[in-house]
Automatic annotation (TrEMBL):
It holds the Pfam family ABC_tran. This is ABC transporter ATP-binding protein. GO terms for molecular function: ATP binding; ATP hydrolysis activity. The keyword Phosphoprotein does not apply. The keyword ATP-binding applies. Keywords: ATP-binding, Nucleotide-binding, Transport. Residues 6-235 form the ABC transporter domain.
Length: 305
C-alpha cells in the first residue's frame, strides 16, 4: 500500500465544449499532514475534488485514495475520504441528528458504532440536534457539513472553502476541531481563499492555476520564495520629491513623511535602503518592516503563470 493519502498521476479533465479544467496534474498528499490546495477561482480545485469524490469522471490519468484506485476500487476509495463541499447539501426538513444517522447508514455504519451525538457535540451543535436543519444559521450549516463528512471516520478529510461566510469565532472553533482530527492521524486537505489561514495551518501547500500545478512545497519553503520586502520609513521633514536609488524596487509616499520602499531582499538589505534615504538629506525618525507572506508568493506565481 502507498504511503500517500492521495496520489494523482497525469490527471486530466476536459468538459463538453472543450473547456480543459485539469491538464496532466501530478500530486501526492502525504499521510498525516494538513495539505493546502490553493488557486484562483476556476483554477481546477473543485474539479479535482469532485473527481476524488466520484462526482465527476476524469478524462485521463489515475488517482488513488489511501492506496485504493478510484477506478479499480471505487467503494474502498470512497469510504477512505470525507468531503466537505463549498455547496451546503442536506435535506432542510431533517434534523442534524437525522442527517448524520442517514449519512452513516449510507456508508453502512452499524447503529451501535454511529457517533452522531459525539460529532454534533464536537461541532457545538448538540443543542440543535432535534431542530430542523433549515433553521440553522449559515455557520451552523457549515459545521453540520463537516460532521456529515466524518460519520464514517475516514482517514482523509477534504475541506473545500470550509470557512466561507463563517464568523471569526466559529472559524476558530472549526480549526480547533480540525487540529484535533489531525492530531489523531487524519490527513486534511484544505482549499481556502484566506491565505493567512493556509499559511498558519498547512504543513505543505500546492498551488494550481489554469488546471496545472505551478508550485508544491513545504509551507515555510514556499513563503521563503518571496524575494520582495517592504520597509516603511518615517523621516524628519515633509517629502516634496521622492528619493531615487537603484536599490529601490518601488517607492511611494504614505502621508507627508512616511516613505514605503520595496526592495529585493536577495540583493539588498534594509541598511542599504536606509542609507540611500539618508543620502538624500532625510533624517530617520522611525522604521517598520513587513516580511513577505504567502499572499505575496501566491500573487507572484499566479501572475507569472
Amino acid at each position: 500500500m502507498s504511503d500517500a493519502a492521495i496520489e494523482i498521476e497525469g490527471l486530466s479533465k476536459t468538459y463538453e465544449g472543450g473547456k480543459q479544467a485539469l491538464d496532466n496534474v501530478d500530486l501526492t498528499v502525504p499521510r498525516g499532514q494538513i495539505f493546502g490546495l490553493l488557486g484562483p477561482n476556476g483554477a481546477g480545485k473543485s474539479t479535482l475534488i469532485n473527481i476524488l469524490a466520484g462526482l465527476v469522471n476524469k478524462t485521463g490519468g489515475r488517482a488513488s485514495i489511501w492506496g485504493f484506485d478510484i477506478d479499480r476500487h471505487p467503494r474502498n476509495a470512497k469510504v477512505s475520504i470525507g468531503i466537505v463541499n463549498q455547496e451546503i447539501t442536506f435535506d432542510p426538513f431533517f434534523t442534524p441528528f437525522e442527517t448524520l444517522e442517514i449519512q452513516a447508514g449510507l456508508f453502512g455504519v452499524p447503529k451501535r458504532e454511529r457517533r452522531s451525538m459525539e460529532l454534533l457535540r464536537a461541532m457545538h451543535l448538540e443543542d440543535k440536534a432535534q431542530a430542523y436543519s433549515r433553521t440553522l444559521s449559515g455557520g451552523m450549516k457549515r459545521r453540520l457539513m463537516v460532521a456529515k463528512a466524518m460519520v464514517h471516520a475516514p482517514p482523509v478529510l477534504v475541506l473545500d472553502e470550509p470557512t466561507a461566510g463563517v464568523d471569526i469565532e466559529l472559524r476558530q472553533q472549526l480549526w480547533e476541531y480540525v487540529r484535533g482530527l489531525h492530531a489523531r492521524g487524519v490527513t486534511v486537505v484544505l482549499t481556502t481563499h484566506y491565505l493567512e489561514e493556509a499559511e498558519e495551518l498547512c504543513d505543505r501547500i500546492a498551488i494550481i492555476h489554469h488546471g496545472r500545478i505551478i508550485a508544491n512545497e513545504p509551507t515555510r519553503d514556499l513563503v521563503n520564495m518571496a524575494q520582495e520586502k517592504l520597509v516603511e520609513v518615517t523621516v524628519d521633514r515633509d517629502v516634496t520629491a521622492l528619493p531615487e536609488n537603484r536599490c529601490f524596487q518601488q517607492i511611494e509616499l504614505k502621508g507627508d513623511r512616511i516613505l514605503a520602499v520595496s526592495y529585493n531582499k536577495t540583493q539588498v538589505n534594509a541598511g542599504e535602503v536606509l542609507a540611500a534615504i539618508q543620502q538624500d538629506g532625510f533624517g530617520i525618525v522611525d522604521v517598520s518592516t513587513r516580511e513577505p507572506d504567502l499572499e505575496d508568493v501566491f500573487l507572484n506565481l499566479t501572475r507569472a503563470a
